[in-house]
Amino acid sequence: MLFKHIKANQEVSDxxxxxxxxxxxxxISELHFTSVKVAKAAxxxxxxxxxSVLDIGAGAGKFCMIGSVWGQGxxxxxxxxxxxCDIANSVIERYQLEQVDMVNTNxxxxxxxxxxxxxxxxxxxxxxCTSDAIDHTIPFGITLYQEYSVYVKEQxxxxxxxxxxxxxxxxxxxxxxxYVLKHSAFGxxxxxxxxx
Length: 196
Ligand SMILES: C[S@@+](CC[C@H](N)C(=O)[O-])C[C@H]1O[C@@H](n2cnc3c(N)ncnc32)[C@H](O)[C@@H]1O
Prior knowledge:
Layout: H1 2-7, H2 14-17, H3 23-32, H4 36-48, E1 52-56, H5 62-70, E2 74-79, H6 82-94, E3 100-104, E4 117-120, H7 142-157, E5 164-168, E6 179-185, E7 190-195
Parallel strand pairs: 1-2, 1-4, 2-3, 4-5
Antiparallel strand pairs: 5-7, 6-7
Helix pairs in contact: 4-5
């Protein structure tokens, strides 16, 4: 029913949505995962022209799952923590969500040319502010922050004209100059870009 309600544009609060997750994931959701309202706004823009959307650092898949039922096309979430991928996959299976896939790898192993639109929720922040980290099961550091940001920037830069990107709470270190801001929302934290 939950995803049917989202699809039908019925109000679903984050507290209701997060019940799909185990308790320890529910606790980190507000800080680390995209809210239902933001996910709907972002996926509407990303899906409008595209049939394949990549979430760069997908967590437990919240953005991808909502996008896959609210937007159109396929949502792929790349997530380096296998524990979060496993949780996302169990939700995907339980609710039989057909338009979403989770890939457990580092973003630096993913060629962006396989996708047409991108979502980025400040995924590399925990490298420079470890007190905000989801957990301490992965390495952090400024060198990794730079490596990941440069990789994303280079990949986005060589995408074709018209490629869409949405950033949320981003410092924009991963944003090439070739992207133009179309509009913003949610107190200017959610930004909608398109490649020139
Ligand atoms: C702020 S959370 C966002 C989750 C999801 N996009 C959402 O909005 O619900 C960022 C996620 O990115 C993941 N991440 C960070 N660096 C990554 C990397 N280099 N490769 C893959 N995943 C990464 C983290 O493990 C974390 O789960």
